[in-house]
Amino acid sequence: MMNRDVADLPSGPLDVYRKKASFSWKDMVRFIDGEDVYLFKQHVFRTLENDPLFARQPGEDVPIEKKRELNFLRYLLGKLQLKLCSTCRVLCSVSRYFLKTEFVINSPDFEAAKFWVGNLGKTATHAVVYAQLYTPDQVCHGLHSFVVPLRDPKTLLALPGVLVTAHCLFCLFQDPKKRFGASLGALSGGRVYITRMALINLKLALTVAIRFSAARRQFGPTDTEEIPVLEYQLQQWRLIPYLAAAYALENFTKSILMNFVEFQIGQMLKDNSDTAGMGREIHAIGCSSKPLGSWTAQRGIQECREACGGHGYLAMNRLGDLRDDNDPNCTYEGDNNVLLQQTSSYLLSWLHAKQRDGVRIESPFHTVDFLEESQEILKSRFTALTVDDCVDSAVPLAAYKWLVCFLLEESQKKLEQERASGNDDFEARNNCQVYYCRSLAMAYIEHTCLQRFHELTTNQDTPAGLRPVLRKLCALYGLWSLSSHMATLYQGSYWSGRKPAELVQMAILTLCSQLKDDAVALVDVLAPTDFILNSPIGCADGQIYNHLWSTVMQGSKVLERPSWWKEFCSDKPVLGSLRPKL
After folding, report:
1. Where is the signal peptide (predicted)?
2. Which of 2-6, 37-41, 270-274, 465-469 has the highest mean pLDDT?
3. Of 309, 317, 319, 313, nearest to 229 (Cα)?
4. What φ, ψ does residue 558 adopt, rounded to 5°?
5. Domain end point (choices 528, 545, 576)
6. Same domain for 134 and 217
């Protein structure tokens, strides 16, 4: 029978901080994950740990060919081409449907080859291929997906009409009509999942960096006393805001996944009441949540790497791997900067509809509803007078509402100016991205993330014992994110004078200090088991040096000479034998 209790963590140097925590980390686990999800995750972790396939020697460097062998998949998604298209409408691969017979998949030229397909390499037997669908009457029905066989599963040899390696070309390849798939619509879901993937990388990096910072001692007020580096204000300021961001994104990604599921259910049930509106909003959210998640993780993992000093650079501690693993999140399923244009266009379309047709701004998932009151919001100003006023998440939330409204109006004005100067719509929109539409899209998604976190912290269903620490995390995330928009806040006169910036900065430092003693318990909530984390300096017991030494000494052939030692020793120059020739 499965033990339904949250397991205790091993004792060690981190106990000092765990005893200082203001909340029960086990209660937080149950609240964040839910008991069933927690138990399922632990079951998966144990299964992986007990499977010989995942057995590794500490510090083992797995050769790239072995990694490919272990990680091969039998399916893949074939969407991107060698000549990357900015719009799915001009995707070049063609499928022609011959009535009552089959589909024929064809790549017109090498530029239409499916490219950037990481799983394609040597072992994939099938692919989901996106192609333009043409019927016998020569009418193009747009982009559709097809499950296409690539190789013989028994021999792994390419099928006739398929040229396949890390790319894939189809030459009039015949595919039975039963393999016809659904039309394009899953990319928004993919971007939502990528946001979650980036968050997982960030959580792993924070677990390593904060546990290391709590256990690592360096310098102190006297020559005989050293203190944990987590006690230093600079270390807190570098790491704890990213911890707050991780909690904000944890709540946000779950909420948008539920939005996406609601949208998918509506499609399956053919409920047309608001499916189109849901689809547009999900698209806008997905196009901006991926930049928010992947860029936050990118910056956060790098900060974690540097905050651990040289140990953070050491390969066995995994921070380099996490940084590398997260990096493609910024570009696949669409480059972040390009995707943000989709979100800003969505927001501008609402403002245009309201001004032209008097449409009420109200969306299915309520991410734009506050824009209906934009004129009143734009009259508001920053009113906090003390640091205590600022450490309430309602303060940055109100500022974000003003910020989005201001950037929306400024972006529209800039767009109209570009058009009035003679630029066509394409050129006008291109010239509105920097400082306007791009900033608008980022402010919108940051506001949405903060809004949902704020709602969680004020919800009566949130356990009372957890609310105080969650409110601090929410306020810190809001203020820290808002601080990147200081210039705009002053530009639009929401802030004036020195006081607002000083209060926000002091509030950020105050919250970092208040959360310092909770930081270890907060990463305990997010952390997987030591086996999954696989980082000597991130282990739950905090015995960083013991684990480092053990990992080094257990490495394969660590005490042996290299295989090429004779080459090094033979023909070795004798000291003093080399003389300058000039």
Report:
1. none
2. 465-469
3. 309
4. -65, -30
5. 528
6. no
